Amino acid sequence: MRPKIYLFGDSITEESFDDGGWGSSLAHHFSRSVDVVLRGYSGYNTRWALKVVEKVFPPETEEGSGGGGAAPVAVTVFFGANDACLPDRCSKFQHVPIDEYKNNLFSIVSFLKNRWPGTNIILITPPPIDEDGRLLHPFVENTLGLPERTNEAAGAYAKACVSVAGECGIPVVDLWTKMQQFPDWQKAYLRDGLHLNQSGNKIVFEEVIGKLKEVGLSLETLPIDLPLIAEIDPNDPLKEKYLANWI
Amino acid sequence: MRPKIYLFGDSITEESFDDGGWGSSLAHHFSRSVDVVLRGYSGYNTRWALKVVEKVFPPETEEGSGGGGAAPVAVTVFFGANDACLPDRCSKFQHVPIDEYKNNLFSIVSFLKNRWPGTNIILITPPPIDEDGRLLHPFVENTLGLPERTNEAAGAYAKACVSVAGECGIPVVDLWTKMQQFPDWQKAYLRDGLHLNQSGNKIVFEEVIGKLKEVGLSLETLPIDLPLIAEIDPNDPLKEKYLANWI
Questions:
Q1: Which of B214, B200, B203 is nearest to B74 (CA)?
Q2: Whole-number Å distance between alpha carbons of A20 and A201
Q3: Chosen from A12, A24, A139, A225 to mutate, greatest number of chain B CBs within 10 A
Q4: What is the Cα–Cα distance from A58 to A56, expressed in whole angstroms?
């Protein structure tokens, strides 16, 4: 059985298998060693994520259903962009107060640790927000003329996410900070002020690969599923040694 | 548990999660309904595929390992491009005689039918070959100055694949024929005379989606994993009805 990595998050996770997406890049990178499993739920905040987490990650052995399978080697938890919607703007129904956001993240992490004690959990903060981009690409009717998300609010939630990771002793990708280190991040990495374009996806991919490496999960350490073509003896492709080693 | 679709094949499957690949496009298309699981093995022919098929698809219940999980809703079987290497050219160690190719495909299909009687198996023929492209992009040293694959040979194997599908009563994507219906298919769909570029990947994606639809697997028929954001009542996101329906 190949090891699995689950990607749990909101729309930035759900759309991560689109062309050049960070999810498909992970699946491609680990094409012979890991199954990358998509569990992205557009629009969800941590309140809803916590409500459904047991459904998303069912117990390992459910008779007849195949169950949830073996423990994954890693889970990325990538929420906060929706929690950080402002409570008095057009997407207010997605807003979650920051203290509840922190508690919800704690609860999600502890659910996962409880379910799979050996699994690496990696938090990812919400990305920075380009407020002009949000005004140009509203998801719902916006009569106020004010963005439903601000970069300042996203930053506060990102900071909260980093602090939860610190308290839990788990890795975190601080995407909010990372992206803003680059000039023109507003247009260089975001396509509508919130969601990632291909360059933005590339950053998430590289950051996640980096964190996975830090916890010992990389192409160098993970077993390859079946022999590479280069290892097959062209003169005797099915020879005993090959079979004994691999089958 | 989400249903699964396995992609079983050679390098054209293994690299299908690269940017714009047909595998990642499937995963994106079914992002809330199906897990698309990659089982591509570069360079493999049906002889090696048949040797390892039990390892690729382990029995459903292996105590302790999580087993192979529930039966997938579909498996794509996409081999032949390596079998069709000519027996007297530089990639001859990958060559499999056409009668053996047919028998191996039969055996792979019957293994899968035996393992999972309800699973839809979809065969995909090898793509056409652009011989000029192969001479420009050799995978191994080619001192003969002749391509290791020809379009004519690929066509014979494609025909054999179509005939196996007919005899087994299962769907087949005749990629060899389909691609050649378009002008300039040699450069329009192939990047090295054999492997697919993004446009070629798009054809495979669309053909597979079409075959899946024919056997009743589509966005319209497959259940969505958890409620879409549009179905959540903004005034009462966690109301009883929502919970009762979904959790």
A1: B214
A2: 7
A3: A24
A4: 6
Is A65's pLDDT higher than 50? no
Q: Beta strand pairing status for A120-124 and A172-173?
A: parallel
**3-state SS class at B153:** helix
Taking alpha carbons only, the member of B47, B109, B68 closest to residue A243 is B47
Per-residue pLDDT tens digits for A89-125:
988 889 999 999 999 999 999 999 999 999 999 999 9
Which residues form the domain of A82? 4-246
Shortest alpha-carbon distance between residue B227 and chain A (Å): 9
Q: What CATH number is associated with residue B235?
A: 3.40.50.1110
How far does B160 lie from chain A, in Å, by closest CA?
A: 24
pLDDT: which is higher, B68 or B43:
B43
Q: Is B191 exposed, middle or buried (0-12, 13-18, 19+ CB in 10 A)?
A: middle
Residues 6+ away with beta carbon under 8 Å from B123: B76, B77, B78, B105, B109, B161, B162, B164, B165, B170, B171, B172, B173
**Could you tell me if the ipTM is greater than 0.90?**
yes
Structure tokens at A235: 């003169």
Determine which one of A16, A91, A130, A195 is catalytic. Answer: A195
* pLDDT tens-place string over residues B130-186: 999 999 998 888 888 899 999 999 999 999 999 999 999 999 999 999 999 999 999
Distance, CA of A51 to chain centre: 18
Confirm if B94 and B82 have CB atoms less than 8 A apart. Answer: yes
> B229–A43: do the CB atoms touch at under 8 Å?
yes
What is the number of domains present in chain B? 1
**Residue A95 appears among annotated catalytic residues:** no
Closest chain A CA to residue B21: A19
Q: Is the pLDDT of residue B32 over 60?
A: yes
